[in-house]
């Protein structure tokens, strides 16, 4: 199947999955375009893709330059020294996970007199090889974020473990949904509009358990191209 038809099929499938979600919310699809070329991205756009996710700053900058009308998200680990290149060009930074990154984003945003929208990345399974705030430390980190007025926390993001264990994945997604709901009920000044969880291998489970944003790459573009 073509990228265009993959995209169209995925959009239709997500509409069906939304009906079985515990939240009942509309699900926003982020097409993960890392390592993909312009022609592939344009084909995804022809199939209905509106927003794209990138995890490397240089690649993100190059794609924004040729596709300035598209909405791009930073979904990978973001080094503080590279914030200056993308903070004012992306719709959302999904990988906010430490104070020095928070400080740098806020500093840059303040200089430009803008608000930068971010998600707190949560390391839901405590995996040492992954970034993200530890589950039990999310509230404390959120309270720190509230002191930085040019950063707006829009919700939470997680990358679930790479496993076929459906029970484990469901448990991770359930805990994320619970955390989001607890924060919504405890912090009236915080927007918790977005729960970004679910990728090509587990987006169906994630949507069922309350995700309203999924980040899908290989399901759209085919097997990942490594660089």
Total of DSSP H or I helical runs spanning 4+ residues: 9
Could you give the order of the helices and strands?
HEHEHEHEHEEHEHEHEH
- Rg is 17 Å
| Coarse structural class | alpha/beta
Q: So what's the overall shape? A: globular
Percent in strands: 15-25%
- Please count the beta strands (DSSP E, at least 2 residues each): 9
The CATH H-level superfamily is: Alanine racemase
Q: Which CATH top level class fits? A: Alpha Beta
Q: What summary fits the major beta sheet?
A: 9 strands, parallel
> Which percent range fits the helix content?
40-55%
List low-pLDDT spans. none
First-last Cα distance: 24 Å
By CATH, the architecture is named Alpha-Beta Barrel
Question: What is the average per-residue confidence, as pLDDT, rounded to a whole number?
Answer: 96
Task: Tell me the CATH topology.
Answer: TIM Barrel
| The number of domains | 1
Question: What order do the helices and strands come in, and which of them pair?
Answer:
Blueprint: H1 3-18, E1 28-32, H2 38-46, E2 51-54, H3 57-66, E3 71-74, H4 83-86, E4 92-96, H5 99-112, E5 116-123, E6 133-134, H6 138-145, E7 151-158, H7 166-186, E8 194-196, H8 203-208, E9 213-216, H9 218-221
Parallel strand pairs: 1-2, 1-9, 2-3, 3-4, 4-5, 5-6, 5-7, 7-8
Helix pairs in contact: 1-2
Written description of the protein model:
41% of the residues lie in helices and 19% in strands. It is α/β, with parallel strands linked by helices and 227 residues long. It has one domain: Alanine racemase (TIM Barrel), CATH 3.20.20. Strands 1, 2, 3, 4, 5, 6, 7, 8 and 9 form a nine-stranded parallel sheet that branches. Strand 3, helix 4 and strand 4 (92-96) form a beta-alpha-beta unit. The protein is globular. The two termini are 24 Å apart.
